[in-house]
Here is the input.
Amino acid sequence: MTEITMIEAIRQAMDEELGRDERVFIIGEDVGVRGGVFRATQGLFEKYGEDRVIDSPLAELTIVGVGIGAAVYGKRPICEIQFADFIYPAFNQIVSEAAKMYYRSNGQWSVPMVIRAPYGGGIGGGLYHSQSVEAFFTQVPGLKVVIPSNPYDAKGLLKSAVRDPNPVLFFEPKKGYRLIKGEVPEDDQEYTVPIGPAKVTRPGQDLTVFAYGMMHHYALQAAETVASEGIDVEVVDLRTLYPVDRETILESVRKTSKALIVHEDNLTGGYGAEIAATIAEWGFMNLDAPVRRLAGPDVPAVPFSHPMQEWFMINPDKIAVAIRDLAAF
Amino acid sequence: MTEITMIEAIRQAMDEELGRDERVFIIGEDVGVRGGVFRATQGLFEKYGEDRVIDSPLAELTIVGVGIGAAVYGKRPICEIQFADFIYPAFNQIVSEAAKMYYRSNGQWSVPMVIRAPYGGGIGGGLYHSQSVEAFFTQVPGLKVVIPSNPYDAKGLLKSAVRDPNPVLFFEPKKGYRLIKGEVPEDDQEYTVPIGPAKVTRPGQDLTVFAYGMMHHYALQAAETVASEGIDVEVVDLRTLYPVDRETILESVRKTSKALIVHEDNLTGGYGAEIAATIAEWGFMNLDAPVRRLAGPDVPAVPFSHPMQEWFMINPDKIAVAIRDLAAF
Amino acid sequence: MPLSREQKKEMFWMMLLSRRLDERAWVLHRQGKIAFHISGIGQEAAQVGAVYAIEKGKDWLVPYYRDLAMVIAMGMSPSEFVRSLMGKAQEPTSGARQMPSHFSLHHAKVLSHSAPVATQSPHASGIGLGIKLDGGDEVVLTTIGEGSTSQGEWYEAVNFAAIHSLPVVFLVENNRYAISVPQEKQMAVSSAADKACGLGLPGIEVDGTDMFEVYDAVAEAVANARQGKGPSVIEAKMYRLTPHSSDDDDRSYRTREEVEEFKKQDPLIMMKNQFIEQGLMTEEEYNNLEDKAKKMVDEAVEEATKAPYPKGADAATPVYAEEVKND
Amino acid sequence: MPLSREQKKEMFWMMLLSRRLDERAWVLHRQGKIAFHISGIGQEAAQVGAVYAIEKGKDWLVPYYRDLAMVIAMGMSPSEFVRSLMGKAQEPTSGARQMPSHFSLHHAKVLSHSAPVATQSPHASGIGLGIKLDGGDEVVLTTIGEGSTSQGEWYEAVNFAAIHSLPVVFLVENNRYAISVPQEKQMAVSSAADKACGLGLPGIEVDGTDMFEVYDAVAEAVANARQGKGPSVIEAKMYRLTPHSSDDDDRSYRTREEVEEFKKQDPLIMMKNQFIEQGLMTEEEYNNLEDKAKKMVDEAVEEATKAPYPKGADAATPVYAEEVKND
Ligand SMILES: Cc1ncc(C[n+]2csc(CCOP(=O)(O)OP(=O)(O)O)c2C)c(N)n1
Ligand SMILES: Cc1ncc(C[n+]2csc(CCOP(=O)(O)OP(=O)(O)O)c2C)c(N)n1
Ligand SMILES: [Mg+2]
Ligand SMILES: [Mg+2]
Here is the structure.
């Protein structure tokens, strides 16, 4: 095992998939000589050439729409959207086309494609470089939505995404790109992580925190903090947000009887609503307390100025407060 | 009072607002001489001329983007999207621009604009003329989302929407356009219905059905059916879906202790998730049963062929079954 | 390669067959036997002319909803089409999930398209990219209505194809209206072919009622694309002889006189006359074709009527693919 | 109307002031005093030339993030800009909600824009529509980078303006790159001005390092727009002399030689030389302006540094308007 960063894990996954399967190619803005604005594709242009790592025009609809065409043709596109905030021009292609192609053709045409995008705040990006957009897509049958929280999963899930016969949205917590480090197997030990299952990343008895991406990273920290106060928190990394792994969620609630869902997207209509609804519907008999959500405030997006950004963002302290509160219920 | 259809109520609202305020204009595909493909703008071109009822190019992004520009200039655009299914090309303009303009300019620029779109299935429209798209927008601070269920509200809410200083998405249950009739005050009795409050449309004791649009219409029918079986159902018409009227929802749950949420959009990640989460978080202590959702299945959209369409769609019978089930809990 | 006499007759047959099939759909609608029809009447000459310029089985077609004649020429049977009109289980495009005329024929490389207009255009460019990356010499033909070229989606698709010199032919079927909206409200140029100059590729305008003029233009564009010379835009001018769809009433936006005027230039009649004048076909042959078409359409309706509906629960799948079958 | 000597000097002053302010932003960034800067260095001649062609207080500006010089010319003070760099409470564009250089000045009819490129273009057309509907003679100037014209959004905006003959001038600031992506990967034409022919409006290409050439072209387009003759596309060619932003490292995609070559055509230096050669300004006057600019920038930084940060909870509002203030 070697310790690497999130961004390196993502780069490695693409490198290995490009090497493994000739049909795989990358398309996006500045993914070529520039190696991506976050350097996720660094070195890949040099290694695989301009036919495999394609600088697109500045047009997200093009990136995804062309990706769909290439996928039905027989390629395995990895589409990069430079920031999740810029995915909206491609919304029609993702929701009307990629998601529905297989169903609408009764299985004739599938769209094996990955759309990668960095998401999330806390990096001084202001309203349009900080957004969490997952909840727009975790309601669209035909799509899969994946958000890794650590390098091991990032690499393993991205490789699975490339091999998946369906369109997979792969959102990367950009604040964690270099901040979150973790071990992955050596280069010659190929592994994947399956798309689908959530994972209990910290077993506990008193309550469960459900989170993903950067917030999962923080949730583990908060769980550690309150452990010393005698609160035994179970943490579940949702990882594959859609389709929802209801079984793992409900199993944890059966055990702890209390649920706190954490995400940095706005509270209302955010992804947490579905998790809360899932628990309120099928886990109700196990519940000892209200289902709590800790999430971004209902303002349009994360503001730029530092004090306002901090006001918006969820952090380990805020999670610890919510945990204590729920534990005391 | 006179009895009119939903579509006539909508037409009247626009007619009166065009007459009241010179700044109001309509822009959309086929809204001019054609009077709209559903005839919602019938006669308005003839009455107000081509400067007030503008046939746009076949481009939803244009309709909304130009609408935003006209709104900041000082106009009051009513943008028509021909079917809700075709709103996605305008997604970026709605979510990045209309919703965030006021906040991002710290209140300098507001976007007084209405976006109307017919939504919903059961009319043989297949995958792309049947969609419910509200949940994409009921998570976007800065937007208001309204869905009327009867002519009185349709007219009153649409007039309020035109006068609202914010961007309002106004989704119209197209199956109900001519099917749902109801009384509205005479022409000379001007009224509006405020955006914001949900409404208890049928008081009851045993459980609450939360619904909107066509499903609210069906919910009332189902409530009637089960009444004869001794189940006393309260029905709440959510009407303004966003911002969420949590108070009315929770008040009803405090009274009935059981909640069933009905919508025709897909279950997972649909609007009902937020209502369920709201109840599970702030109404938990009042709950006597799991929070139930009855919603469309998690397939990409409503299929065309009649048996498959019926399989997808929620109807009064299915609602009655769910009510009985929950009542028996 | 000039068209042989046999090919030309086959092309006429495709026009005729799809016309009679299309007309029958209107009849079925009036009889209340189907819920919806969207028609290609008046556009068959351009469609057949264009589709004969690509190589069946090798090249790709990314069509739009009016392309009945194209898709018939690509191998969809009349009874398959009528099944889709009726929402019957074994219709080949979508298993009756989509409305009729949302075509897809996997075996013939006809890509599934949806209702939101212009979404197909970037797919065509993406297929073109795949072909180019593989060094293949297949070509993609994609179609669209003139109104739909107002979508940014079309612009982006053509722009990408032009930048990368992709083997794609963008055919615009300009039938003068987008539902009720005339061309002048869609664009400030006189033809979608004019849009090509702003995107750096050739733009050609042809008479869409002349099957052979369309064939020649598309064949040249296809030859260029095959040789790596890049994409083209072709606009074929024609007229939609029917209302937009069975839900439309076109009297609100165009006069009967206008429609009658254009009926005189009905491409089927013009082609028929031309064939007979040029001795490509006798009146008798023509009458035989009419009989054959009627018989085929009759049989198609009969067959399709007997075909079963899907079960409701069939709609539960297939949402996700387990494996990719379209490689 | 030809520019007066005084106007010309004022224009040069705007170039100079915004350049020195922009340079200071880079210094502040190196000093760790600000987190982000996106620069207009190299684009000032075009910006000032263009903005002087509209009438302040009457006409509208819908800019993009590189337009510091435009917005300074429209009345944003240097200290206001530095406050936005620092995320201070009283910065006038967004109350420190947006990243710096996302401009908005309501009193000067400078519309707020966002980060997703090209979203501003349809707004410009919408304002143009409003003006036309009211029969006004205001004009809208809107800007964009050449890369961003690849977005369907730009195409749709220009198309709409062309159809309705709206009073909008679409200025494309072509600085040769979109971050790392050169123009050849954005379009198959040699200039965004060439795109105009496909949309039915005039397209004009000018040297964006020549303030007066840009002024003349924009002034003519503005005059046409004001007279109801419709919109224009103008492309001003220039070079981005700095990295894309403070987050960028441009060495990965362009050689130092290339950048050095273009530094020789720095519009500020060229304009200065021209002014002195043509006797519009003496060396002494120039030195005075430099001193004045330095002083203003120093003061701006001092002032802005002292200005308070917003409170965190200030971010809770304003999500919804209670009334429309921008009528
Ligand atoms: C994105 C989108 N918006 C609106 C519609 C509704 N609609 C269906 S066809 C049509 C007109 C299309 O006109 P054109 O492109 O000229 O093709 P034609 O029907 O004339 O062949 C419209 C507006 C749609 N299908 N998709
Ligand atoms: C929709 C969208 N996609 C991607 C980006 C990221 N981005 C910011 S600026 C930029 C390049 C813009 O290039 P150009 O339009 O030429 O303007 P320039 O920066 O060169 O002035 C990119 C890709 C964005 N802001 N918006
Ligand atoms: Mg048309
Ligand atoms: Mg540029």
